[in-house]
Structures are given as structure tokens and as C-alpha cells.
Amino acid sequence: MAINRLHEFPYSGSIPRYSILKKQGYRVVIVERHLIFYKINELDEDELFSSIKNGSRKRNLTEYKKLYIIKSLSGNYTMKEIGNNIEISEVAVFSLANKN
To answer: Taking burial as the number of CB atoms within 10 A of a residue's CB, which of 13, 40, 42, 94 is the most buried?
Structure first.
């Protein structure tokens, strides 16, 4: 299935014809009757971790920080420990963990 190959071949999706999606860097694959839109993370994993660890305030890292927080909470780390590790406040950890 096309979606299973995306991890190995992230550029295999087409560039959408809609200009707003194209400008925002989206790609698209067709799976059965569905269009799957996605963005490619241009940072490698070490760069991404380093940016999160150093408390980067880049907006494009918010979803990754949230994922990191959720995984850390499931590993029984406290919000204070998580915040100290990624250099944000305990309140910011709580806010990101509960952000929709």
C-alpha cells in the first residue's frame, strides 16, 4: 500500500495542485478512495531531538514536543522532570500535553 512506503520514500507522494497546500509544503498520496495529505520533516532525528532538548521555540516543533511529552508521561516521568529535560516550564508541559 502506498502509505506504508512513505517512511522509506517520503517524496513518493505527489505535489498537490491546490496552491495553498503546495505553498505549505504538503504532498499527497491516494489510498483507495482517500487523499492522504502529509508534510515531510526536513530535520533528521538527531537535529529534531537536539532542537527539542534545547528548548527551541520553533512552531514546527510543537507537535514533536507534544509527542515527546505524551510518551514521557506514559513512561511515568513527572511533568517537572520532562520540563527540566527539554528546558520548558512544568506549566508549558501541562499545556502542551492537554493541547488539542
So the answer is: 13
The set of cell numbers assigned to 70 is 505524551
Helix ranges (H only) for 7-76 are 19-23, 45-53, 62-74
The residues with which 42 forms a beta bridge, in sequence order, are none
Whether the model pTM is above 0.90? no
Q: Are 25 and 39 in contact (CB under 8 A)?
A: yes
CA distances from 37 to 43, 56, 86, 92 (A): 19, 26, 30, 29
Long-range contacts of 26-32 (CB under 8 A, 24+ apart): 29/2, 29/3, 30/2, 31/1, 31/2, 31/3
Mean pLDDT by runs of 10 across the 100 residues of the chain is: 71 86 84 81 64 62 82 90 86 88
Residue ranges of the domains in the chain? 2-39, 45-97
